[in-house]
TrEMBL record:
Biased composition (Low complexity): 297-328
Keyword Glycosyltransferase attached: no
GO cellular component term, pick one: plasma membrane
The protein's name: Cell shape-determining protein MreC
Record flagged with keyword Amino-acid biosynthesis: no
A biological-process GO annotation: regulation of cell shape
Source organism: freshwater metagenome
Domain (Rod shape-determining protein MreC beta-barrel core) ranges: 126-270
Length: 352
């Protein structure tokens, strides 16, 4: 009789622990009394999520070997050789997509002079009181901290809201509670970008009711003090429609984000902001699609020429990691590398 009760007792204990962890996840504040327990559970279960992720690629280990220093050239050569091998052997669509994503992250790092750590998305769902979050397989041991900017191929993805030793939770800009200081390309007009709960649409409210605002304009991050939670110059999205007329206090616009929040795979966390505001240098000018305004910048689109780094930014192409683009014969320069981070710069705050 006692032996038959033991399995039920163990099952009951496990269920109790599971419900307790769910309650901690929903109610714990990262800085509150339960924050430590929350981080401890993240340290325990983060590696399990990472181990069960089916999205891990052999490319990650190769790219993760990139560091700053004299060994760059050899490691860059290894990466280029791997890309060439994948092309020659008819690589899978998933591998080609990954190469393109990494190439774009490295391009943005070089153009904006961001020091970044690349990570893999290992979980999607709601956490920390937010509806739109993802869990990534990088944490405190990789130099991550709360309120760091997170990018994906194309532009801004979100910000870090909690960190354990080996994983972190990122709230996406699509979350309805999220607001980002935004700036229009070219004119520099500033306003606020808010999530709508949709992965495909954001709202932008201009501070100056008389400021120029039109479809086709690109919006970038204005930049927070000391670069947290948002560094300056990261592409957010493109304006698709404008409501109201100049002078109306309720004038606002709809934005299509450059990043597809529903298909996030590889992301990059900015662990050190640039010394100088990159302004619009991270945007990539490409031919506009049919029906769109000519010359609309589209981050993430392949180009044959590398973007120019921002004026006054440190680093040069001669000592920066470079990866071969799957869509161009000339690889763009870059300064970011997964995990072992590239040479970066100190924080900066954008001025209007």
């Amino acid at each position: 009789m006692r032996e038959s009760r033991r399995p039920r007792l163990i099952l009951g204990i496990l269920l109790l622990v599971a419900f307790s962890l769910v309650a901690i996840d929903l109610r714990a504040d990262a800085n509150g009394p339960l924050g430590g327990l929350k981080r401890m559970t993240g340290s325990v279960f983060g590696p399990l999520e990472s181990g069960t992720s089916s999205l891990t690629s052999p490319l990650r280990g190769l790219i993760g070997s990139l560091t700053s220093g004299s060994a760059n050239e050899r490691r860059i050569a290894d990466l280029e050789a791997e890309v060439a091998r994948l092309r020659a052997t008819g690589s899978s669509p998933d591998a080609v997509r990954r190469i393109a994503e990494i190439d774009d992250l490295l391009r943005m790092s070089q153009a904006g002079q961001y020091r970044m750590v690349v990570a893999q998305v290992i979980g999607v769902g709601s956490a920390q009181g937010f509806a739109h979050t993802v869990t990534i397989d990088a944490g405190e041991v990789d130099g991550l901290g709360v309120d760091m900017t997170v990018m994906a191929g194309g532009g801004l993805a979100g910000r870090v809201v909690s960190v354990s030793s080996t994983s972190a939770v990122v709230v996406l800009i699509s979350d309805a509670t999220n607001t980002v200081g935004g700036r229009l390309e070219g004119s520099g007009e500033i306003g606020f970008v808010s999530g709508t709960g949709s992965e495909f649409e954001l709202e932008f409210k201009l501070l100056d009711p008389y400021g120029s605002l039109k479809p086709g304009d690109s919006v970038l991050t204005f930049g927070s003090k000391s670069g947290r939670p948002y560094v300056p110059g990261v592409p957010i999205g493109i304006i698709t429609s404008v409501s109201g007329t100049p002078g109306q206090l309720t004038r606002q616009a709809k934005i299509r984000p450059f990043v597809n929040m529903s298909t996030l795979d590889l992301v990059a966390v900015v662990v050190e902001p640039p010394r100088e505001n990159p302004r619009d240098s991270v945007l990539v000018p490409t031919a506009a699609p049919s029906g769109a305004t000519s010359g609309v910048p589209t981050p993430g689109a392949p180009t044959s020429a590398a973007p120019s780094p921002s004026p006054g930014a440190s680093g040069s192409a001669s000592n920066s990691p470079v990866t071969a683009s799957p869509n161009a014969s000339t690889p763009p320069p870059a300064t970011a590398s997964p995990r072992p981070t590239s040479d970066g710069a100190s924080a900066a705050t954008e001025s209007p």
